[in-house]
Amino acid sequence: MRIHPLTGLAAAGSAAVITTAAASLPLSVAVSAAALALSLAAGTARRMLPAAAAVLLPLGLSLLIVHGLSFPEGLTVLAQWGPVRVTAEGLSFAFERAAQVSAVVLILLACSFSLSVPDLVAALSARGIRGRFGFVLASTLTLLPAIAARAERIRQAQESRGLVIRRGLLHRAAAFRLQAVPLVLSLVEDAGTRAAALEARGFSSAGPRTSYRIVPDSPGQRFLRLVLVLAAVAAVAVRLWHYAGGS
């Protein structure tokens, strides 16, 4: 059965909301594992993992600095340098928050790397959403996959002209510096080209629209989307009730 793009978005969004509301380490690990498994099954892991690392490494480091080194509730001191204390409770809290953020990022990236932009635009247009807004939404959701694919093509082109990328973080960072300028310039040029193409196709017109692309949508998937949205709302409500009861 072909998965409707809105069903994939609902599943990813619901999983992200429930994981954030639950704040459970086992659930975060399970969602991360599921996202990686889905990415491997779809064949997008090779492109998704570098993008995930670029997002998660700075976030994980910041969580470690903020919570691991300065956690007021920490009692078990592992090391101390003046006012800076490394506590077991702080490291545990930082690890739990990092796992939670990782689960959310991975499941959203797994969804965005597998989404079909034409299918999503057609599905949104079939529900009365204006074409320009639907295209902007689809492009935003698939921005990281597009950047990753463009960066890969630039790297291959530079390697064919003699660029040698050695192993190691410093060598890769130096190589990325050489790839950053053509990457940004190509993305700016592509944005202008797409804007002209959208205008030529009448995406800004307010009249009725038709689409040659038909995205099948079964009653079962519509019901599943409703259940996913209700589950996310229920998870948020339970979390708010828990905070209200705790206070």
TrEMBL record:
<feature type="transmembrane region" description="Helical">
    <location>
        <begin position="47"/>
        <end position="66"/>
    </location>
</feature>
<keyword id="KW-1133">Transmembrane helix</keyword>
<feature type="transmembrane region" description="Helical">
    <location>
        <begin position="101"/>
        <end position="121"/>
    </location>
</feature>
<dbReference type="GO" id="GO:0005886">
    <property type="term" value="C:plasma membrane"/>
</dbReference>
<dbReference type="InterPro" id="IPR003339">
    <property type="entry name" value="ABC/ECF_trnsptr_transmembrane"/>
</dbReference>
<dbReference type="Pfam" id="PF02361">
    <property type="entry name" value="CbiQ"/>
</dbReference>
<keyword id="KW-0812">Transmembrane</keyword>
<feature type="transmembrane region" description="Helical">
    <location>
        <begin position="223"/>
        <end position="244"/>
    </location>
</feature>
<keyword id="KW-0472">Membrane</keyword>
<protein>
    <submittedName>
        <fullName>Energy-coupling factor transporter transmembrane protein EcfT</fullName>
    </submittedName>
</protein>
